[in-house]
Amino acid sequence: MLELPDYPWNQLAPYRELAAKHHDGVVDLSIGTPVDDTPQVIQEALAQAANSHGYPTTHGTPEVRQAIVDWYARLRQVTGLSIDDVMPTVGSKEMVAWLPLLLGMGPQDILVRPSIAYPTYDIGAKLVGATAIATDDLNELSDEQRARVKLVWVNSPGNPTGKVRDLESLRQLVHQARELGAVVASDECYAELGWDEFEGAVPSVLDPRVNDGNLDNLLSLYSLSKQSNLAGYRAAFVAGAPNLMPTLVNSRKHAGMIVPGPIQHAMVVALGDDEHVVAQREIYRARREMLRPALENFGLTIEDSVAGLYLWCTEGQSSWQTLQRLAELGIVAGPGAFYGTAGDLHVRVALTGSDERIAAAVERLNSSANR
Question: Is the predicted pLDDT of residue 5 greater than 80, yes or no?
Answer without folding.
Answer: no
